[in-house]
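Subgroup meeting minutes
Present: P.N., E.W., G.H.
Scribe: E.W.

1. P.N. recapped why we're keeping a running log of single-chain structure predictions: easier to compare across weeks, and new members can see raw inputs and outputs side by side.
2. G.H. added today's entry (105 aa).
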Amino acid sequence: GPGTTLAGLVLGAAGRHPVVGAPAAPAAHGVAAQGAATLAEAGWADAGYRLLDASRGGFARLDGRLARFIVEFETASGVALEPLYTGKLLLALREAVESGAVARG
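Output recorded in log:
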């Protein structure tokens, strides 16, 4: 269900390194809440993960900024992105690094 991929990554990391998630759906969809509930059930109530907002206005929405980023990324890297998950994730990560919310490197 929603948030279980993030919960699995957090549990797999077992505190050895930080985990950053980027839900593609708005907070109202319950992804963060479900992930937190799954972690609490596993005994990791304070798992120390971070969430970036990657929803870009809603699930399955493709705004102009995301469309441009995908074209730029694919042109520069040769790696194809889809806009529902990986495109949103990588744009959210880029914006977090550029704003200083996530450290470079």
